[in-house]
Write a structure and sequence with these properties.
Elements lengths: L5 E4 L3 H7 L6 E4 L2 E6 L4 E14 L5 E4 L2 E5 L4 E16 L1
Antiparallel strand pairs: 1-6, 2-7, 3-7, 4-5, 4-6, 4-7
Length: about 90
């Protein structure tokens, strides 16, 4: 099982519409650093923000506004929010 974060930079508005991203809940968070563990897969689309997510024993991943990101179930990581985040998200 791959514990890898996947990022699609600037996906098309049509794709986002088909997935239903804009109907997903919104999560916001101020500049901060915290550990996180994903029990379920999460897909999210960053409306704004700048984040470095570092998987435990892995390479840091840079996520920013306009990125569509998939975090796999089982991932443990550290979030370093460098600019306040607003994102749509979906678990499962």
């Amino acid at each position: 099982m791959s514990i890898e974060i996947t990022i699609e930079h600037n996906p098309s508005p049509a794709k986002l519409d088909v997935i239903g991203v804009y109907d997903w809940p919104v999560w916001t968070k101020e500049v901060s650093t915290f550990p996180w563990h994903y029990d379920k897969q999460e897909k999210c689309y960053l409306l704004e923000g700048d984040v470095i997510v570092t998987p435990d024993n892995g390479e840091p991943v840079h996520i920013q506004e306009g990125d569509f990101v998939t975090f796999p179930a089982g991932l443990s990581c550290t979030w370093e929010i460098r600019e306040a985040v607003e994102k749509h998200y979906d678990f499962g």
